[in-house]
Fold:
Amino acid sequence: MNHLRSVLLVSAVFVFCAMCKKDPQILPYKTKHVVIVVVDGARYQETWGNGELTYIPHRAQMSLDGSVLTNFHNNGYTYTNAGHAAITTGYDQVINNTGNELPDYPSFFQYWRKATGAPAEKAWIITTKDKLNVLSDCEDSLWTGQYRPMYDCGVNGPYTGYREDSVTFNHAINIFQTWHPDLVLINFKEPDASGHANNWTGYLNGIVATDDYIGRLWDFLQADPYYAGTTTLFVTNDHGRHNDNVQDGFVSHGDNCDGCRHIELFAIGPDIKQNFTSDEGYELADLPKTVSQIMLFPMSSGSGRVMQKILK
Structure:
C-alpha cells in the first residue's frame, strides 16, 4: 500500500510539473487539508447579511485573514440532504431527506481517496444529523462501496437520532487529534433545529453557538503542528430559510425564495485571499471543484466550477 501511494504521488507531481511548464500561471497550492463546516439552515440575512455581523463575531474577526462571497447560493433543492449532496458531489439532486437514499454521484472524498491511496481514516464526515451518513457512499455502480470516508453521525450512527452540536464538536476535535484526517465535513444542526421549533431566540442563539465552535475549531487547527499553515476552512449552509413574508417565515425552508437560496460562503487558509469580499456569483455545487483544485486531485464529475475569485 505504501509503495502504491508513493507511485501515485510521484505520478501526480509529474503531471502537475508538466502542467506548470505549459502554463506558468499555474502555481502550487499550500493546502494539504480541507475542512468544510456546514451551519445548517441559517439565512444569509442573519449571518453576513447582518450589517453589524452581530451573530458571527468569530467569523467576522477571521474574515480579516479570509474571503467572503456575498452572492453565494443553493441553486438546487433547499433541504438538508440535497444541499449536503451538492456540497460533496457537485450536483443538484432530488434526494430523500430522511437518509434512505444515497447521492447519485461519487463525492470528493471518494475521488481524493482514489487519487492519493489514502486510508479511510484520513477522510471523515462528522455530523450532528444521523441521516447524513449517506454522504459516505453513492449509487454510481463504478463507485458504490469504494474509497469511502469514515463517518461519525448522529447519536450512534444511522437511524439513532440527532445529537447535540456540542457532542459533534467534541467528537470532531477527538477525531482530529486521533486520526489527523486531511479531508473533513462537519455538520451542526443549529440553527435549523430551533428554526423548525419556531424558536426565534433559539435560532439566533444557534447561529452564535455554531460561530463559537467555528472559532474554536480554527484556533485548534492553527495550534496543531499537523494542520497549522496548511489547512483551508470553508464555512457554508446547506440552505437558508423562508423570507419573513413567505409562508411561515424563518420556521421552514424548501422553496425558491431568496431566503432559502441565498447562503454564506466564508473561506480561510493559505491559498485564500485575505480580507477579501466578492459579489461574484457562486453556488454549493462549486465547492467540490474548488476542493479538488487546491488539493490537487482530479474530479471528473460535478457541474460546478472552481471559485477562482477567492484564490490567491
